[in-house]
Structure formats: structure tokens, C-alpha cells
Amino acid sequence: MRHQDRADAPPIDPALMDLPELMVHLSRSLRSRHSRELAPFDLTPSQARAFATVARWPRRAQEPETAAELRLSTLAELLQIAPRSATELVDALQDKGFVERRPSEQDRRAIVVTLSPAGVELRRRMRAAMEQTNRRTAGDLFQVLDEHERTLLESLLRKVAAAERTVEP
């Protein structure tokens, strides 16, 4: 017997879900919304995440000034994915003209990733569109919460996310 398509499955009452199920349910909802929002930019959520990481580099507060070059290995670490997966994401972004690869000036054996001119323009367009979309999505999804509850939820999620980084799998 085949499993039903998720779209065909009846919705599960959130009151019957435990905390991990609620997190997965909301994550799927957010990811689905995010995918629709990225469609005009021809990016998947994974590509958008990699693109955003390249676009933010080296303006990351925790990075030393000497880390001006973003190597593929560093990108993989930042995204918490296998180096091969980072290579595939950069391949896709390069095929679309959004990033460029070049040899490192510090170590010619290493490859660094930078935004292309088209990537710089895409970053500008995405930033404007995503700010609007994020406000709308947050408003839609979290409208049942008052400002205090939203702030508390954000604080709690940040606390859990920070603790998750220190816990061994």
C-alpha cells in the first residue's frame, strides 16, 4: 500500500502533537512558504541559504578580520553540511551566475567563493523582497501571539538553538 501524499492527508490537530512534532510541523510550514517566496529568484531553500552565507561573508561578527576569503570547506562548516554538498550548492549557484570561484590568494590550493556582479544585484533584490515577505509571514503565522509572546518565543528558540550547538548528537 502506498503512503498518501502529504497534501492528501488530513491535517493533524496540533493539540495532539508533542513538542518535537509541533516543531517539525511548523518547520515544514515555514519551509513551504519560504520555497514559494524564493521561486521568483530561481533558488531552492538550500541554495538560498548558501547564497545568503556567501553574501554575508566576511561581515560576520564572530569571524576574524583575516578570514576575508570564504573557502568551500568553511562554507560547508557554516552550513553544517558535507563538503561535497557545499560543492554541489556552489555549482548550482555558479551555473546560475550568482557566485564565482577563484583560487585563494592565501593558499593557491584552496578555492574561495565570492558573489558575482549578478549575485550582488540578486542580493539587493532579495533583501528588499525578503524583508517584506518575512514581515508578512511572521504576521500571518504568529498573529495569534501578542508582542510579548513573540519576543518570548524568539528568546526561547534562540536559547534552544544556542544550546543545540553544544550538545553532541
TrEMBL record:
Pfam family, one: MarR
One BP annotation, GO: response to stress
Protein's name according to its UniProt entry: MarR family transcriptional regulator
Organism from which the protein derives: Nakamurella sp. A5-74
GO MF terms, alphabetically ordered: DNA-binding transcription factor activity
Domain (HTH marR-type) ranges: 16-162
Gene3D superfamilies, A to Z: Winged helix-like DNA-binding domain superfamily/Winged helix DNA-binding domain (1.10.10.10)
